[in-house]
Amino acid sequence: MNNSPSASPQCFLTGITTTGTPHLGNFVGSIRPSVAASRLPGVQSFYFLADYHALIKCGEPARIQRSTLEIAASWLAAGLDPERVTFYRQSDIPEITELTWLLTCVTGKGMLNRAHAYKASVDKNETAGNDPDADVTAGLFMYPVLMGADILMFKAHKVPVGRDQIQHIEMARDIAQRFNHLYGDHLVLPEAAIEESVALLPGLDGRKMSKSYDNTIPLFIARDQLRKLIAGIVTDSRAPGEAKDTEGSALFQIYQAFAKESETAALRQAYADGIGWGDAKQMLFERIDQEVAPMRERYQTLIGHPQEIERLLQAGADKARAVATPFMGELRRAVGLRNLSTAQAPASKSKAAKSAAPAFKQYREKDGQFYFKLLDAGARLLLRSQGFDSPKEAASTIALLQKEGSGALVTLQDKVQISPGISAADVAGSLAFFTAA
Ligand code: TRP
After folding, report:
1. Which of 59, 237, 246, 375 is 20 to 30 A from 130 in CA distance terms?
2. Four-way CATH pick for 5-197+305-316: 3.30.1440.10, 3.40.50.2020, 3.40.50.620, 3.10.129.10
3. Nearest Cα to 328, choosing from 93, 180, 153?
């Protein structure tokens, strides 16, 4: 049996900050590989719109809303299947902000001082001779803690991110370790999953494609505008007939990110044979358009039906909260935010008393099914569930037991089994801890 606090052996989670309009660089570097990964069998994945993170960078309400819509529509149009994955909006999960506070209280301020994004702002201020914290919000400072809550809430093992985010994942691990040390083994320590093979796409000017360089090609721009933008990609001044270098050619690199190997080889040959830049751009345009056109059509349909996207996100939030709500209950009890009627007389200062509380643990077995067990304050196994098809069913059964206590055992007799040697009274005693909470 799996005794770690983890819910599933392969749980992936990724957040997408809802600022700006997705561009081809986002598609190649993040959307495309993530959607492909979400279709692999045996992985449970969580994708969410990080709109609380967006508030740190953007103070324009209409832009926040528009960008959330566009990014949700982009991921759906690119093939993210909300039936298969849990796709939700961060701000629909109030437990995330609640967990952020519990984590804040175990996070070293010194660690946050060392966060790259915060330090970059401070360095910039110091160089300019300003107060080091000029224009730095506490939101920017707290960014890593909020991100930690995103990850730790869903017991994610792997977090696919770009290199610039590795430090944040390390901080989430650090915070989780500190929490577990104080309160017992509740949080799963996450790891960054860096996709080495994913291409970094150059932008129109040859530098990395990025909003901050203003050199992007929006993913779902109209066909004629796509052609125009591609015509503006920087090239050298070699004339048609002269051999061209693929090395350092932004046009070639972008083509490669969309083309099959054989197509790339053909363009390489055409470069050697002296293809004119105009023709090469036409090839690139057709190749990108071929890939993007069907998605663009789905995107337009989705954008035209925002209420449908809203409905999908609400359904995603229900799925996510089926996990988050009971887990947050466990964490609240772990730190001592408990119903007072369960309070013990001020007891000995023994170590056991520190974190001793009954606990439900969810896990997944090799058979692929989802299980839970109930341990008493001394970590004795009181009961075990049968397998459930989804973590949601397991979580809602736990929620029923927590709400109704031993009274629910009769209706759940097919679903949970009391351990040998454990009396019904033992179980009832531990369940009372939750019903009173
Ligand atoms: N910080 C991430 C980015 O800018 C977005 C993000 C927020 C995230 N919460 C997360 C990514 C949790 C992974 C996991 O790309």
Report:
1. 59
2. 3.40.50.620
3. 153
Ligand 1: residue whose CA is nearest its atom 11: 15
Looking at this protein, which amino acid is placed at residue 132?
A: P
Give the integer Cα–Cα distance in Å for 199 and 32: 11
Domain-wise residue ranges, the chain: 5-197+305-316, 220-302, 338-436
Kindly tell me if the per-residue pLDDT of 358 is higher than 80.
yes
Tens of pLDDT, residue by residue over 290-338, are 999 999 999 999 999 999 999 999 999 999 999 999 999 999 999 999 9
Q: Look up residue 258 and give its two tokens.
A: 């969309």
Report pTM: 0.79
Phi-psi region of 17 (alpha: psi -120 to 50; beta: other; left: phi over 0): beta
- The more confidently predicted of residues 3 and 383 is 383
123 backbone dihedrals φ, ψ, rounded to 5°? -60, -40
Q: Whose CA is nearest to atom 12 of ligand 1?
A: 15
Of ligand 1's listed atoms, the one at least distance from the Cα of 17 is 5
